[in-house]
Amino acid sequence: MPYLEGQLQDFKEAYGFQSPFAGFYYCYSSPEQQWAFYARYIQSLWDAPTGQTYYDLAEIVRGKEVFVLTTNVDMQFERVFPQNSICSYQGNVGYFQCSQPCHDRIYPNENLIREMCENMLGMRIPSELLPRCRECGRIMVPWVRDDTFLEGRDWKDGVIRYESFLKQCLTKEKAKSVLLLELGVGEMTPGIIKLPFWEMAYKNKGAFYVCMNQEDSSSPEHLKNKSLYIDGDLSKTLRDLKQIMKGKAGTGK
């Protein structure tokens, strides 16, 4: 894992973490230790270059009506696609929320995250830099899915935009041209993307479901003629697809 071998190597050695996910949900002895990990990890995501895969995807769908439903929290989609065309269903690490939560608001965190990292003492941050809620004084947490996740105005707005997009596209007039493209979705939360996509592909005559993933899989029996699975490295698949589309555009086909 590149993050653990770079920015988080000391946490890996001290705690035995095998992935950033393990460190993110670890039960630390103090909030100063917890936020030291959060801050280092979140800063690494702020500083990470935008993946070429996202640029390739944007190029492939250029000129099309597009909406992104994502369970990623790493801020990559927001760099390439318009914010009003994205629903970040599991949140976004670029924001804080109250850990209560006592009110319906999220806050951009980049400046404070960088200040924490600049003033870190070992694997702890100074207590005075702990992010605290402006309303109740409780310690803030990253705006990502857990048992305190704020499904407030910002989250609901994203869901409403997504549902409105589907309602508009899955009409009898447009359903023949709807592609439900699932990219690299795991098995932890199939109820967010995978299962709804199966249902929409089945119920809408013209909708077609495509899944691209690292491992081979099979489509449900009821989608036998309305689905396609493409296994392999996602970045290579999209890069190759972009080149094929460019070739066709050059020939006018």
UniProtKB/TrEMBL annotation:
The keyword Transferase applies. Signal peptide: none annotated. PROSITE patterns: SIRTUIN (PS50305). Keywords: Metal-binding, NAD, Transferase, Zinc. It comes from the Bacteria. Zn(2+) binds at residues 98, 102, 133, 136. InterPro entries: DHS-like_NAD/FAD-binding_dom (IPR029035), Sirtuin_cat_small_dom_sf (IPR026591), Ssirtuin_cat_dom (IPR026590). GO terms for molecular function: metal ion binding; transferase activity. Residues 1-253 form the Deacetylase sirtuin-type domain. This is NAD-dependent protein deacetylase. It comes from Acetatifactor muris. The gene is cobB_2.
